[in-house]
Amino acid sequence: MTAGRPQRGGLSIGAVLSQLRPEFPEVSISKIRFLEAEGLVRPARTASGYRQFSVADVERLRFVLSAQRDRYLPLKVIREQLDATPVDSSSLSRVELLAQTGFSAEQLSQLERDGLLRAGPGGRFTADDITALRTIRTMTGLGVEREHLRAVRAAADHEVVLLKSFSDPETVRELADLFTSLHTLLVRAGLRQSS
User: Is the pTM of this model over 0.85?
Assistant: First the structure.
């Protein structure tokens, strides 16, 4: 049995490595085994002891590797996030998100590195993420560059910091809508003044 060949009922560790390497060049079989030993992924085993990874296992590994690389989270925090979040039937895996939006895995990884898309615990995505990706595709089609999108992300992060200073969730939701409305009005006013 070769390490890279899918086994009946799941993927071999070599096949998983082949899927992850384009996004995470530093990942190795020993790293995947280490993450398994730490309880972050639990592949099934054949009667002869070979690991069989499911699509969900690969998504968990992607989430763990992204959280380590992009957010510098320790494994304990990542494990807590994974364990605390049940899989929501309305959420999407990475594979489902790519299928619904037409983005490539590399494009999606770049958007994650730029902070424009963030998987939730368990590596799952929401309908808002689909909308964000479609919006990004339209904007880039109109000539918006990556650095412009990163500026939008930075502005949103500043608003999030401000909103987190309020403790009432209902007030935060209302203020978030008001911030969006005010932002739109200020942009329109600025464009009127410059024309």
Answer: no
